[in-house]
Amino acid sequence: MKQRKRIHYSEAQKAKMWDRWEKGDSIHAIARAFDRYHSSASNILTQNGGVRNRAPISLTLVERETISRGLASQQDLTPMACSIISSK
Length: 88
Description:
The chain has 88 residues and is mainly alpha-helical. 60% of the residues lie in helices and 0% in strands. The chain is built from five helices and no strands. The protein has helices at residues 11-23, 27-33, 38-47, 61-72, 77-87. It comes from Zhongshania arctica.
């Protein structure tokens, strides 16, 4: 990984990170918006309230398990996706 010059985020930049996180953007996407690696954005979000949960648009454990079992039994993905989307 290339070493980049240290950056000190302003309060406005930190607020923008939080807004994007609350909208469901991934940490990787947030970091790319600031031309940084994901660890930079992750550290800011963790230090300022913590990233304890997955993004709101992420699949739940139950949904991931449903997909895993469906794939293992060679079920079609379309009905599984429709049932997951309709349950949200």
